[in-house]
Automatic annotation (TrEMBL):
Residues 10-94 form the Pyridoxamine 5'-phosphate oxidase N-terminal domain. This is Pyridoxamine 5'-phosphate oxidase N-terminal domain-containing protein. It comes from Paenibacillus albidus. It holds the Pfam family PNPOx_N. Gene3D superfamilies: Electron Transport, Fmn-binding Protein, Chain A.
Amino acid sequence: MSEALAQLNETLLSMLQSETFVLLSTVDAESGGPTSTAISWIYAVSPSLIRLTVDHRSRLVNNMKVNPLITITVFGEGTVHAINGRAAVRQDPLQDVPFKMCCFDVEIEAVRNALFYGAQLASAPRYAITYDGRAAEKLDGQVFAAMQKA
Protein backbone atom coordinates (compact mmCIF):
# COMPACT_ATOMS: atom_id res chain seq x y z
CA MET A 1 0.00 0.00 0.00
CA SER A 2 1.21 3.45 -0.80
CA GLU A 3 1.10 6.70 1.12
CA ALA A 4 -2.32 8.34 1.37
CA LEU A 5 -3.21 11.44 -0.63
CA ALA A 6 -5.91 13.89 0.44
CA GLN A 7 -7.54 14.17 -2.98
CA LEU A 8 -8.14 12.42 -6.29
CA ASN A 9 -5.39 12.43 -8.90
CA GLU A 10 -6.25 13.49 -12.47
CA THR A 11 -6.89 9.93 -13.66
CA LEU A 12 -9.26 9.09 -10.78
CA LEU A 13 -11.01 12.45 -11.17
CA SER A 14 -11.61 11.76 -14.86
CA MET A 15 -12.69 8.19 -14.17
CA LEU A 16 -15.25 9.35 -11.60
CA GLN A 17 -16.63 12.01 -13.94
CA SER A 18 -17.81 9.35 -16.37
CA GLU A 19 -19.90 6.22 -15.92
CA THR A 20 -18.23 3.76 -13.59
CA PHE A 21 -19.15 1.57 -10.68
CA VAL A 22 -17.58 1.37 -7.26
CA LEU A 23 -18.01 -0.45 -3.98
CA LEU A 24 -19.45 1.75 -1.24
CA SER A 25 -18.60 0.56 2.25
CA THR A 26 -20.53 1.88 5.24
CA VAL A 27 -21.09 0.96 8.86
CA ASP A 28 -24.44 -0.81 9.22
CA ALA A 29 -26.68 1.32 11.44
CA GLU A 30 -28.31 -1.72 13.05
CA SER A 31 -25.48 -4.24 13.52
CA GLY A 32 -22.53 -1.83 13.70
CA GLY A 33 -20.67 -4.09 11.29
CA PRO A 34 -19.17 -3.26 7.90
CA THR A 35 -21.23 -3.55 4.72
CA SER A 36 -20.36 -3.04 1.03
CA THR A 37 -22.62 -2.43 -1.95
CA ALA A 38 -21.84 -1.78 -5.62
CA ILE A 39 -23.19 1.56 -6.86
CA SER A 40 -22.90 3.47 -10.13
CA TRP A 41 -24.53 6.84 -9.34
CA ILE A 42 -21.31 8.52 -8.36
CA TYR A 43 -19.68 11.68 -9.67
CA ALA A 44 -16.46 13.53 -8.77
CA VAL A 45 -17.37 17.20 -8.32
CA SER A 46 -13.74 18.15 -7.68
CA PRO A 47 -10.49 16.47 -6.59
CA SER A 48 -11.66 16.71 -2.95
CA LEU A 49 -15.43 16.12 -3.27
CA ILE A 50 -17.45 13.16 -4.56
CA ARG A 51 -21.22 13.16 -4.94
CA LEU A 52 -23.27 9.98 -4.87
CA THR A 53 -26.95 9.12 -4.97
CA VAL A 54 -28.71 6.20 -3.33
CA ASP A 55 -32.30 4.94 -3.65
CA HIS A 56 -34.20 5.57 -0.42
CA ARG A 57 -35.11 1.88 -0.24
CA SER A 58 -31.42 1.10 0.40
CA ARG A 59 -30.06 0.65 3.93
CA LEU A 60 -27.10 2.76 2.80
CA VAL A 61 -29.10 5.98 3.28
CA ASN A 62 -29.63 5.39 6.99
CA ASN A 63 -26.14 3.94 7.41
CA MET A 64 -24.53 7.16 6.14
CA LYS A 65 -26.89 9.39 8.12
CA VAL A 66 -26.07 7.53 11.36
CA ASN A 67 -22.32 7.12 10.71
CA PRO A 68 -20.89 9.30 7.93
CA LEU A 69 -17.52 7.49 7.70
CA ILE A 70 -17.36 5.61 4.39
CA THR A 71 -14.93 4.01 1.98
CA ILE A 72 -15.36 4.07 -1.79
CA THR A 73 -13.41 1.33 -3.58
CA VAL A 74 -12.52 2.11 -7.19
CA PHE A 75 -11.03 -0.42 -9.63
CA GLY A 76 -8.88 1.26 -12.26
CA GLU A 77 -5.44 2.45 -13.38
CA GLY A 78 -4.28 -1.15 -12.97
CA THR A 79 -4.94 -1.04 -9.24
CA VAL A 80 -7.58 -0.75 -6.51
CA HIS A 81 -8.09 2.61 -4.81
CA ALA A 82 -9.67 3.07 -1.38
CA ILE A 83 -11.14 6.54 -0.93
CA ASN A 84 -11.99 7.36 2.69
CA GLY A 85 -14.28 10.22 3.53
CA ARG A 86 -17.28 11.64 5.35
CA ALA A 87 -20.71 11.61 3.75
CA ALA A 88 -23.21 14.41 4.34
CA VAL A 89 -26.68 14.78 2.88
CA ARG A 90 -26.60 17.19 -0.06
CA GLN A 91 -30.25 16.94 -1.14
CA ASP A 92 -33.03 14.76 0.27
CA PRO A 93 -34.96 13.93 -1.73
CA LEU A 94 -32.97 14.49 -4.91
CA GLN A 95 -35.01 16.74 -7.21
CA ASP A 96 -36.07 15.95 -10.80
CA VAL A 97 -35.84 12.16 -10.58
CA PRO A 98 -38.79 9.74 -10.85
CA PHE A 99 -38.50 8.16 -7.41
CA LYS A 100 -37.21 9.05 -3.94
CA MET A 101 -33.43 9.20 -3.73
CA CYS A 102 -30.95 10.78 -1.36
CA CYS A 103 -27.91 12.65 -2.65
CA PHE A 104 -24.74 12.76 -0.52
CA ASP A 105 -21.53 14.74 -0.76
CA VAL A 106 -18.40 12.94 0.37
CA GLU A 107 -15.51 15.05 1.58
CA ILE A 108 -12.37 13.08 0.75
CA GLU A 109 -10.00 12.52 3.66
CA ALA A 110 -7.60 9.99 2.11
CA VAL A 111 -6.96 8.14 -1.16
CA ARG A 112 -4.83 5.00 -0.97
CA ASN A 113 -3.64 2.27 -3.30
CA ALA A 114 -5.36 -0.74 -1.70
CA LEU A 115 -3.97 -3.51 -3.90
CA PHE A 116 -1.51 -5.90 -2.28
CA TYR A 117 2.18 -5.47 -3.01
CA GLY A 118 3.46 -6.91 -6.26
CA ALA A 119 0.08 -7.09 -8.00
CA GLN A 120 -1.57 -5.17 -10.80
CA LEU A 121 -5.13 -5.43 -12.13
CA ALA A 122 -5.07 -7.03 -15.56
CA SER A 123 -8.41 -5.41 -16.35
CA ALA A 124 -11.04 -3.37 -14.56
CA PRO A 125 -14.32 -5.14 -13.75
CA ARG A 126 -17.24 -4.35 -16.07
CA TYR A 127 -20.98 -4.72 -15.67
CA ALA A 128 -23.90 -5.19 -18.04
CA ILE A 129 -27.45 -3.87 -17.59
CA THR A 130 -29.90 -6.78 -17.25
CA TYR A 131 -33.13 -4.82 -17.67
CA ASP A 132 -34.45 -2.41 -20.32
CA GLY A 133 -31.33 -0.63 -21.58
CA ARG A 134 -33.28 2.43 -22.79
CA ALA A 135 -34.98 2.81 -19.41
CA ALA A 136 -31.62 2.46 -17.62
CA GLU A 137 -30.02 5.06 -19.88
CA LYS A 138 -32.91 7.49 -19.33
CA LEU A 139 -32.84 7.05 -15.54
CA ASP A 140 -29.05 7.39 -15.42
CA GLY A 141 -29.30 10.60 -17.43
CA GLN A 142 -31.92 12.01 -15.04
CA VAL A 143 -29.96 11.05 -11.93
CA PHE A 144 -26.61 12.40 -13.16
CA ALA A 145 -28.20 15.67 -14.31
CA ALA A 146 -29.93 16.08 -10.94
CA MET A 147 -26.72 15.22 -9.04
CA GLN A 148 -24.77 17.86 -10.93
CA LYS A 149 -27.46 20.47 -10.19
CA ALA A 150 -27.81 19.54 -6.48
